[in-house]
Amino acid sequence: MSLRSSIVMGMLLGASSLSTFAATFEVPRNFQIMYVDLKSPGSFGGDFKTEVAAGERQFVVRFNQRVGGGSNAEQFQSEPFIIDVNVAEDSNIVLEAPYFFRKNDAASFAKSPEITLVDKGSEAELDYEMRMLPAKPGVQVMRDYKSEVRDFTKTYKQPAVDTPMPAPATVAATEELEMLKFWYNKADAGTRKDMRIWMVEHSHQPKTASTAFEMLGFWFEKASAADQKAFQIWLLNE
């Protein structure tokens, strides 16, 4: 093969490899990207910025910042949290969050991170779902985060079409279940999203208070385990 042919072939292969990634995802330096669709970002520096394919993506990220200097420095780290978002082609998604200089602020943020996802191309804020991976009690030297994320995802993701969920046993209608359905139907889209997150992570609070969210929380706490499960199954079919 001639030198010119080799160069042309290399350019074509390079273009082909780039075409498989149609977007990027980036976090600030006080965060890290742990997984993209349960796969490591891979390349050097990929824990801050990585290329991704368009479509429904799952990012697992973690707040991780050292505050202070010398012997007075302290490391603050959140539990991993899962972000489910629809990635558009050619988008440049950036996770925006504060950088902290006070330990109290960093500690509070680590317990309950608040972020924004922005497409830098259009400057539009993106809709997404975020869930914190439940903490484990005691000292954890080694954790299999990938398995934990996979198992946790199953608690809120609807099964694939080729593996349908078995029909649930009939549950007699109760006041609690009926009130949960009633308030969910009255809630707007934002409140419904907040409720779904809250059922998995009770520390989640909506940015805007609403009667529907408060009543949903009240009746969910009052419901039996069977009614809570029946309500969650009902949501999957909505």
In helices, the fraction of residues equals 25-40%
Which residue ranges are poorly predicted, with pLDDT under 50 across at least 5 consecutive positions?
A: 5-9, 11-19, 159-171
Strand order of the largest sheet: 3-1-7-8-9
Give the number of DSSP strands: 10
SSE pattern: HEEEEEEEHEEEHHHHH
Count of DSSP-assigned helices? 7
What would you note in describing this structure?
The protein is α+β, with helices and mostly antiparallel strands and 238 residues long. It has seven helices and ten strands. The strands form two sheets. It has a five-stranded mixed β-sheet, with no helix packed on it. Strands 2, 4, 5, 6 and 10 form a five-stranded antiparallel β-sheet that branches.
Brief synopsis:
The protein has seven helices and ten strands.
Entry keywords:
single chain, 238 residues, alpha+beta, five-stranded mixed β-sheet, five-stranded antiparallel β-sheet, 10 strands, 35% helix, 22% strand
